[in-house]
Amino acid sequence: MRVLYHHALNPGSRKVRLALAEKGLEFELKAEQVWERRQAFLRLNPAGEVPVLIEEDGTVVPGDGVITEYLDEIYPERQLLGETALDRVEVRRLTNWFDRKFAREVSEPLLEEKLLKRLARSGSADSQAIRAANHNIHHHLEYLAWLAERRNWLAGESLSLADLAAAAHLSCVDYLGHVPWDNHPVARDWYARIKSRPIMRALLSDSVPGVPAPAHYADLDF
Amino acid sequence: MRVLYHHALNPGSRKVRLALAEKGLEFELKAEQVWERRQAFLRLNPAGEVPVLIEEDGTVVPGDGVITEYLDEIYPERQLLGETALDRVEVRRLTNWFDRKFAREVSEPLLEEKLLKRLARSGSADSQAIRAANHNIHHHLEYLAWLAERRNWLAGESLSLADLAAAAHLSCVDYLGHVPWDNHPVARDWYARIKSRPIMRALLSDSVPGVPAPAHYADLDF
User: Fold this and answer.
1) What's the superkingdom here (chains A, B) (predicted)?
2) Taking the CB of the first residue and of the last residue of chain A, which one, N or C, has fewer CB atoms within 10 A?
3) Using 50, 70 and 90 to split pLDDT, how confident is the model at B78?
4) How far, in Å, CA of A199 to CA of A164, rounded?
5) pLDDT tens, position by position, A4-31
């Protein structure tokens, strides 16, 4: 069986879980506490980061961006990057928007301060970093709404990796209770559409010991 | 003529310049001061970041990772990502190593503290961040040497995007005088090999007003 080393609230891991589900590929999850820097895991990925995909033949594919490019090459029946080179420019641009810009400005500081410091027992939360992320998320939800008003899905007519990346990051932040949905109805409509898809079910039933999700997290009518 | 919006000491811009040169594609450089947040530039790339490639037909390709994937698709004669899906896993893994891990731990803090704060006149340098980066670079040069001792180029037998990413980041840090070459002879040998290639010439003659490069920066016998 295909194996995915992951962490429940790691956005890159969630993006790959959604990509595998959307492609109909079966896999087994193995939770990795990356901060323990386990030697056997470092041999799979010297960068020491999740996700890492292990194919049934033993092929090791480390890193969310590497995995999603690999999956579209090897299992092209359901293309997540788009059909043409220009489609792929737009899908990759928006995927990077969430994986780099949204990550840097919103999800990474929130996950670091509210979750990882607690799990790895490494210091107390920086309230200034949390306030900055709470401020920055409004700009991103406005941009998401701007896209969702002009297109069926974020990068065009079809659901693509850009939607999966956005859902991966936003669902992590939502688990921490930091998405101001009430101020952003168009972004909420987009999230409600993706949230109701079967590919999201596993993510919505995730739970991290000691860090309970808010009641609305798994609610399709949030 | 093809146009590349760039900044002389932005590693992503340098990686794309090397990729275009390696593929033999002509282009004109336009320097963009991204901190000025020029409206016409934000319309090309809402993320407000360099590099952005404009093809002769007007196609806009924003972001270094998006551009290098696009270039290998559209101009496949000289493949920089590798010939097989497994080659591409390794090339993308190591490219991400430099663009994400090396960037976060070494080049981004050094460029931010020693260059961008000065150019954008936004505060004084954080000496603790500089010390951390000076410490971290040793680990990366050791990993680079480990790879270079086992392979002809970083990701395998051929020069690939992984070498261009590494050269892009290291040449920026070298411009700032922060690569401890004397302690890392194997990494220096690899850099001497790529430094002597014609594709590096334009980068080695870059100069940023008010921030002169050290004498060894452009020297092939450093």
Assistant:
1) Bacteria
2) N
3) very high
4) 10
5) 999 999 999 999 999 999 999 999 999 9
